[in-house]
Amino acid sequence: MRRLALTASFAIGLLNCFLAYSGQHLSSQVRQFVADHKTKLSYFSIYALAVPPWLYLLAAVAITIGLLGVMRRLNESAIVYSALALLFLDVLALLVMLWGVGVLLFPFYDRVG
Fold first, then answer.
1. CA Rg, the chain, in Å?
2. Does the pTM of the predicted model rise above 0.90?
């Protein structure tokens, strides 16, 4: 069980790095779309586009937990519970980003010019 928890912790860290990088790329594309079409985003969409850099922090926490688990500073249950908490935060962040970017598909934004 310990190996599974450590593997999950390191995998969460690597996947968060990927999500942060791809999320930043998506965010820059959406910002370019908004600039090209001279639109104004809702505040929620602006906040949702600011989420991807925070995933790097979650990646650092997951890798730190994995390293502490390898050094046997954390017990097995702490690693499992922290992995579950990080996965919950990942899902929450992805839902916020999905909703914030998905709002752009509907005519809820205002044209400026």
1. 17
2. no
